[in-house]
Amino acid sequence: MLQTKEKKKREKYDVVSNVIIIVFALLNLFPLYWLFTSSLKNSSDVIKMPPDWWPKTFSFSNYIDVFNNQPALRWTLNSLFVAGVSTILVVIASSMAAYAFSKLNFFGKNMLFVVFISSLMVPKEVMIVPLFRITQDLGMVNSLWGMIWPNVATAFGVFLLKGFFDSVPDALREAARIDGAGEVRTFLQILLPIVKPGIGALFILNFVQVWNDYLWQLVIGQDKNVKTLMVGIATLMQDLNPNFAYKMAGATVAAVPMLLIFLLFQRYFTRGIAGGAVKE
Amino acid sequence: MKLRNYHWKENVTGYLFILPQFLMFLIFIVYPIIEGIRLSLYKVQFNQETFVGFDNYVTLFHDPVFFKSIYNTVIFVVFIVLLTVAFSIFVASSVFDKNAKYVSFIRGSYYIPVMVSMVVMSMVWGFLLNPANGLISYAAREMDFSIVNLLGNKHTVLPVIIFVTFATNVGQAIILYIAAMIGVPKDLFEAAEVDGASRVRIIFQILIPLVKPTTIYITIINIIAVLKIFVVIQLLTGGGPNNASVTMMYYLYNNAFKYNQLGVASAVGVIMFLITMLLSIPQLRAMFKGK
């Protein structure tokens, strides 16, 4: 008797909280809904009040304008290049380092790992002045390479992949060694294929992070032609042009690739993000 | 002799494998930190550097805008982190034991704004909040609120930015909490259920204590993320009205790239660096515990 009463109470909290959560989830998606639908309205409909909740006439002219009046295609290609190349370099450098920290023995290994991981806590933004001057000295201001290299210096990949390497039994590596494989071959042909899910998670998380990066790309890419998509569309926002539909079209162009990546690779996000967290 | 040779070889192999990452680490993390500390003691004009000791720090502590930026940053950190932790525990504890499709729907809908970046979200919110033709301003007018320009009013600008940042970033914490809660052993819930514990009691007495490491992690990464908040300020308010929403990162950026005060900007950077290091000590401790 008492138990059924308790059960009812529990279910009530559960029902109420889940309803609240669903309502908030939909509200949370509303700004994006508003972004997409506004980008398809024409310049007079977008500011009409009371608003059209759904575009009356679909117009793609805002998108055409963004690509015609602004070097949006160039920006997109720049972003793809910066995010793609940074990520490939991150994967190479951090899988090598993670392998060494997990499977090899060398002097000072634990201390070096601690130092590496501590750097995870330093946001590169706070060191932006010296970082800018170094990039300048290397002649990489206004160059996509100047956006790429500092991104490779992240310990996140080492931390994430070390966990994956740790879960591979040492016996496997020893067997490969006994069969006569050298260290490089053992790493490339035996271990790397096993940690593929980790590489996948790192690839996607890093790609998204660099794609969405803003401050560093803003500082380095000053010419219109070396701007990345995020920086480029942000200039639309500061533009005096009152046509909001046009600005929303620009923002949509920047958002869509990330939405596609999310829908295609959802499981990597959960795994990668949770894998980067502490586990007791 | 042979054994020693072997050890030597293993050491070299190890160093060669970490070399690329280590070089990047030295050039783009270690050197900037040292150089940043050095620059903070210099006055930098074009290519001329003059040693000024702690003058840049003295300048900072005489600038009311710098104090305003610290105050705003602290407000942002406290409110955004509290909101994020509380709300994500609420969401995760309510959905983690539901069926997989529902969990991934909730996870997805809260995570999508995280995916599409602060720049895009700031632009949408900027449009929604635009005093002339934004949906939110229109609603405020229709409901006869006195304030329509929420971003142009010094009393409402902080809460609005807190809300926008929270709403855009809470998804990450929700994912982490759901993952942690799914990992809690099932028999604990069964035992609690047999005892007739209510859902609320299970949440407060089993779930929250057991996901404490996740809470520490989320708190620290969020403090550090909020500390460097920049995009939303630049795109929504430009630090205004009248410096009411200026943050430390925005102040640093302006000094460095607008007013050409590289020494002062470096001093702000050093202060922020020290804060992040202090904050991350408990996290680093947790990470290396048992290693």
Could you describe the 3D structure shown?
The complex is a heterodimer of chains A (280) and B (291). Chain A has 280 residues and is mainly alpha-helical. Chain A is globular and about 75 Å long. Chain A has helices at residues 2-39, 61-69, 72-103, 109-118, 128-137, 144-152, 156-166, 170-178, 183-194, 196-212, 215-220, 229-238, 244-275. The mean pLDDT of chain A is 86. The two termini of chain A are 40 Å apart. Chain B has 291 residues and is mainly α. Helices cover 75% and strands 3% of the residues of chain B. Chain B contains 13 helices and 2 strands. Chain B has helices at 2-39, 55-60, 64-95, 100-115, 117-129, 135-142, 157-182, 186-194, 199-210, 212-227, 231-236, 248-257, 262-288; strands at residues 42-45, 48-51. In chain B, strand 1 and strand 2 form a beta hairpin. The longest helix of chain B has 38 residues, at 2-39. Chain B is flat. In chain B, 43% of the residues are buried. The mean pLDDT of chain B is 88. At the A-B interface, helix 1, helix 3, helix 4, helix 5 and helix 6 of A face helix 1, helix 3, helix 4, helix 5 and helix 7 of B.
Features:
heterodimer; A: 280 residues; mainly alpha; 73% helix; globular; B: 291 residues; two-stranded antiparallel ribbon; 2 strands
Biggest sheet overview of chain B: 2 strands, antiparallel
How many β-strand stretches of chain B? 2
Compute the number of helices of chain B.
13
Oligomer: heterodimer
Give the averaged pLDDT of chain B, no decimals.
88
Distance between the termini of chain A: 40 Å
Over the alpha carbons, how many angstroms does the gyration radius of chain B reach?
A: 24 Å
| Overall form of chain B | flat
Assess the beta-strand content of chain A as a share of residues. Answer: under 5%
Mean pLDDT score of chain A, rounded? 86
- Helix and strand run of chain B: HEEHHHHHHHHHHHH
